Amino acid sequence: MATTYKIAVVGDWESVMGFRALGLETCPASTPENAREVIRRLAHEDCAVIYLTETLAKALPDVLEKYKDELRPAIILIPGREGALGIGRDNIQRAIERAVGADIL
Hints:
The chain has one domain (6-100): ATPase, V1 complex, subunit F (Rossmann fold, 3-Layer(aba) Sandwich). 41% of the residues lie in helices and 21% in strands. It contains five helices and four strands; from the N terminus they run βαβαβααβα. The chain has helices spanning 13-16, 32-44, 54-58, 61-67, 87-100, and strands at residues 6-11, 25-28, 47-53, 74-78.
C-alpha cells in the first residue's frame, strides 16, 4: 500500500490559516521554540513538504540546516504577513550553487 504524505504550513496564525482552505495542515506557531517542536513532529509523521514562514525561519537556522539535504520533509520558506524577507530566495540560490557549481541567478 502506498504511503500518503501530507503538506503542512507552519507560521503565525494570520499567515497560515488561509492555507486551510486549500486542504493543507495548518500549524500555527507563535515562537521559534514552538515551531521547532512542530517541525520535528511533522517530520516524524510522514510530512513531505513543510511551508515555513521566513520570520520563523530566521530564528531557526539549525532546523533549516538539519533538513536541507533530507528527502523528507522539504522545508520551503514563504513570506509571512510581514512580507518577504529574502531568506527563501537566498536559500534557493545557495542550493542552485551547490548543485550547479555557479551562481546562475
